[in-house]
Amino acid sequence: MKVIRKSSLNEYAKQFWKRQRQDTKRTDKDEPALADIDKGGDPISWLANIYPYKLPQPFNDKIELVKFETLEELDSLLIHDYMISGEWMQDRDLVPTSKTRRLGDLAALALERRYFETERPDTQITLFKTWKEKANLNSFIDNNSLPLVEGTGECCYEIVDGWGRLHAMTALVKRGMTFEPFNCFIASSAGISGTP
Q1: Domain that holds residue 76
Q2: pTM greater than 0.70 (yes/no)
Q3: Residue 118 in domain
């Protein structure tokens, strides 16, 4: 993982709302936030009020833009502990038989259980089907849809925002596509070593 530059929660929040404006999952509750943000409203406050689970823990207040350079870094990302046996995972038959939160393990399980072949409107399925015939993953995660991960204090990183994108990307690589480095926001308590 390579640090590109220091960032801020505000930069991430602005990107989130820009993406949300164009996202097919946009809901009525987003409208007042988007209107207020257009007038100079605080994107972080709106995020905290509507999507608090898309924000890092308060102690992870150092935000940096990094480049994930290896498949191992991508595979080792974790999902939140509560997600492992949550309703979403149960409905899709994605609960692992042995407890794991690692993205690489969960992508392999999803492929094994043919999750990406189903007709659900999930982000990861849509992305997987859109990209599976392409030559490479270049620009799969573009600069307008950067995920956010945060340090867990155990030298691990947990996905805060971007589970669908990262899950699909990992599955595509496990299916045979070449890994492509990508940028990502990281929140941590002390910053990543080597910050410029």
Answers
A1: 2-7+61-188
A2: yes
A3: yes
